[in-house]
Design goal:
Elements (H helix, E strand, L loop, with lengths): L4 H18 L7 H8 L3 H13 L3 E4 L5 E4 L8 H9 L25 H19 L2 H17 L22 H10 L1
Antiparallel strand pairs: 1-2
Helix pairs in contact: 1-3, 1-4, 1-6, 4-5, 6-7
């Protein structure tokens, strides 16, 4: 599975709207969302239309209008958003539960690649369907608070923003588990 730009932008938008709700910012205009998240305005409008049609966000009209979440964050699974925007989670069609496609393999039942990709799909689905928008917003805000409270000398020598490599300790589960351990 590869998350498309559309999927990435939809998730970032939902997380930003969740943070706005948590911080009682009210509605956010599309132009503000686009600016804050560095997203193309027209592309964001199209994504918001899709999210609104599916009932995840709602628009508020008027001078101080904008967009806000339409559902409680705890009821929005991250996997729902990915499937809505990008479709199947499986890396190959024959491993998909929702959009199965027959493959060209001569023996699909005993195909090692298919079995491996089913496990990949299951792992991705288990993570995306386990966590809600509320979980992701909570971890995001905790990480922001931790970074704000960390003295500069403690981060010396560590990779920082702009790094080209993903550090496993920066992952969602690592931050979640670190927070639980404290």
């Amino acid at each position: 599975m590869r998350l498309t730009k559309r999927g990435e932008y939809a998730l970032r938008t939902m997380i930003r709207l969740g943070i706005a709700e948590r911080q009682k910012e009210g509605v956010i205009s599309v132009s503000t969302l686009a600016e804050q998240e560095h997203l193309p305005f027209k592309f964001l409008e199209a994504i918001l239309f899709e999210l609104r049609t599916a009932g995840y966000v709602e628009s508020v009209r008027g001078k101080y209008g904008g967009t806000r979440l339409a559902k409680p964050m705890k009821s929005i699974k991250m996997g729902e958003i990915v499937r809505l925007i990008d479709g199947k989670l499986a890396p190959i069609g024959c491993a998909s539960e929702t959009e199965y496609e027959k493959c060209t393999c001569p023996d699909e039942t005993h195909c090692g690649l298919r079995m491996l990709m089913i496990d990949v799909r299951n792992a991705i689905a288990n993570i995306l369907d386990r966590y809600t928008l509320e979980n992701v917003v909570e971890v995001t805000l905790r990480k922001q608070q931790q970074c704000a409270a960390t003295p500069a000398k403690k981060t010396a020598g560590k990779k920082t923003a702009g790094t080209r490599h993903a550090n496993p300790s920066d992952g969602f589960l690592a931050v979640l588990l670190d927070t639980v351990a404290q």
